[in-house]
Amino acid sequence: MKVLVIGGDGYCGWATALYLAKQGHEVGVLDSLIRRHWDLTLGVDTLTPIAPIHKRVERWKAVTGQHLDLFVGDITNYEFLEAVFRQFEPQAVVHFGEQRSAPFSMIDRERAVLTQVNNVVGTLNILYAIRDLCPECHLVKLGTMGEYGTPNIDIEEGYITIEHNGRKDTLPYPKQPGSFYHVSKCQDSLNIHFACRIWGLRATDLNQGVVYGVLTEETGFDEILINRLDYDGVFGTALNRFCIQAAVGHPLTVYGKGGQTRGFLDIRDTVRCIELAIATPAEPGKFRVFNQFTELFSVEDLALMVQKASQTMGLKVDINYLDNPRVELEQHYFNAKNTKLLDLGLQPHYLSDALLDSLLNFAIKYRDRVDANQILPKVSWKRGMAK
Ligand code: NAD
Ligand code: USQ
């Protein structure tokens, strides 16, 4: 299949582009490289030394003999996107290309606006490009479990059947996003659902949980293919951050009481979920929603697991319960369904001691690159980032 991976220079996108190419798909990598620029403006960097995108693509060709089409540009620029669609003629579009950090979106007004314009306009442009240039194309869009928030009832996969005043309907599951970034994902979902209804497009919204890990088979082929691994207070996510903190002897940064529970998955499962979603496309007019995570953990559980794994490797690690910079529930009910991808054949890599060891060893290998000043959170949901 011809698959266009938008955001293909990023953490999930790069791993997915290589994995899909390895499975025999014809892959186009599209990215504006804006994420590298955002890192530079904040003074943060990935733990791993990532090569420039052109070099990455050349090395993939040298190692595997496979060509990846590369399109460098911004999907909020419709002329650019249209030209890519005309040239590449995708049968599936996998859309990772957004500003994806909740703290980044809460830094200030400018970043909140940037996040929502970038994400909502980019996705709208894709919907128009599909309608006008390849209406059969299947859109696989990365949403987030955070669209649902933390309701005191079970979380279904996208829709819930409700009985109200004697009548019954199946409706989109209520949204309670936790940051301006998460709000942009809810708006995307509404726009995609609407476009499916009125134009008959086919789309799958993958409400992904927090991704952890770094190694996939393909990114491990060569040092130049190495994936990014964020640990800073803006782009770093919970488990990845904890492993890197442990590697440099920094106390683990649990926000508040640590009872915040989220869905998590290994990056090796992210790439497989995308493969499964494109293998069985949504029907025309259909807006499918899958919850893409494999296990639920509280932040405190993760910190305790990392602490234990670190101790067996001879690292001494404390846990710090910091004042929570976010506004979120710290003890709550959380029970989300995730059977749809399992039904399609996903065989999860559950979080194991072996994975924690490998992630800790990876972090130790690159720990000289860690800037300890970037570890503590600097963005408050109430006050933004201190100037
Ligand atoms: P990332 O920041 O590593 O990658 C995103 C890529 O998209 C970057 O390379 C960036 O340059 C590109 N991009 C952004 N805006 C663009 C635009 N307008 N035009 C072209 N390219 C653009 O992020 P990631 O961690 O790989 O996340 C990818 C997607 O998965 C996001 O949509 C995110 O919301 C979703 N997601 C990520 C996680 C996670 O834990 N990383 C969890 C759930 C959902
Ligand atoms: N947390 C800590 N300590 C840390 C970092 C985070 O306690 O050092 C807590 C946060 O307060 C939050 C939870 O861990 O309760 C998750 O935070 P995170 O930074 O790991 O992830 P989040 O901000 O939710 O965002 C990430 C990705 C985003 C994706 C989302 C999936 O950056 O793109 O949408 O995970 S989900 O969380 O399911 O919405």
- CATH topology description: Rossmann fold
Number of DSSP strands? Answer: 16
Would you list the SSEs in sequence order as H and E? Answer: EHEHHEHEHHEEEHEEHEEHEEHEHHEE
CATH class: Alpha Beta
* Proportion of strand residues: 15-25%
Lateral arrangement of strands in the main beta sheet: 3-2-1-4-5-8-12
Q: Describe the main β-sheet briefly.
A: 7 strands, parallel
- Radius of gyration over C-alpha positions, nearest whole angstrom: 20 Å
Bound molecules: nicotinamide-adenine-dinucleotide, sulfoquinovose-uridine-C1,5'-diphosphate
In short:
The protein is of the alpha/beta class and 387 residues long. 39% of the residues lie in helices and 20% in strands. The chain has one domain (2-385): NAD(P)-binding Rossmann-like Domain (Rossmann fold, 3-Layer(aba) Sandwich), CATH 3.40.50.
Task: Note down, in words, how this protein is organized.
This protein has helices spanning 11-22, 34-42, 53-64, 78-88, 102-105, 109-133, 180-199, 238-248, 267-279, 299-312, 339-343, 353-365; strands at residues 2-6, 26-31, 69-72, 92-95, 138-144, 159-164, 167-172, 202-208, 210-212, 252-255, 261-266, 287-292, 295-298, 319-322, 379-380, 384-385. It is an alpha/beta fold and 387 residues long. The chain has one domain: 3-Layer(aba) Sandwich (Rossmann fold), CATH 3.40.50. The strands form five sheets. The protein has a seven-stranded parallel sheet, sandwiched between helices. The protein has a three-stranded mixed sheet with strand order 9-11-13. α8 (238-248) packs across α12. The N and C termini lie far apart (48 Å). The mean pLDDT is 98. The structure holds nicotinamide-adenine-dinucleotide and sulfoquinovose-uridine-C1,5'-diphosphate. Residues 7, 9-13, 31-35, 74-76, 96-100, 118, 122, 142, 144, 208, 210-211, 228, 237 line the site of nicotinamide-adenine-dinucleotide.
